[in-house]
From TrEMBL:
The chain crosses the membrane at residues 90-110. InterPro entries: DUF3426, Znf/thioredoxin_put. Keywords: Membrane, Transmembrane, Transmembrane helix. This is Zinc finger/thioredoxin putative domain-containing protein.
Amino acid sequence: MYTQCNHCNAIFRVTMKELTAAQGLLRCGECDNIFDAMKSLSQTLPEERRFAKLGTATAAALTDIPPRLKGSHSAARPSFQWSWPTRISGVWWGVIIGILTVLLLLQVLYSSRHWLAQQPFTAKLTQKVCDFAGCNITQPRDIRKIDLLSRNIYSHPNTPKVLTISASIQNEAAFPQPYPVIEVSFLDQNNKVMALRRFPPEEYVTHFQGQLMPIGEPDELLLNITDPGEAAVRFQFRFM
């Protein structure tokens, strides 16, 4: 098959495979013009068609063909490049794929934020990112990992009929977790509850602002509670 440059009228021999690869757009090897090869595509040479109309189609007409068609197959092959629209389209596809990849990664991170918040090496970063992005994190909790290291009870030195309980607790979990509500109950000799009080974190943590219990660091507590009287023979702690 043959095609002709619409700028300098140079003729090239082409194959359908080459046209398909270039999406029909060729670059002329003579004038460097990009043209639509499909518009002038023909099974015969343009000169042959002209002489056929005149009724003098002869083999001699082929002598007028430019020398570039008389050489080897490689010399006759047209010089063409990918068109700008094709290259621009490829760039946009790359941008779209990149954006979709980032969105997918963000979706995975968002779905895994609760798990990431439990890992010691990502907990702080995850919290900061969520604070900035406005997403909520359900803080992991495991009150079974909160140990009561020590406890002691004595009368308040300045206030009558008030007992002060000093205690030390520690977070043994592998992740920071919220401070628990501490329930203190007094029992009589029959294990009947004589008095009970629950202390939220803001009542026993100094300058509490929602911070979490650190890992492996003891916290010293001072709790004040009304003296239940002599009927109470023992007391107990419970974390909630």
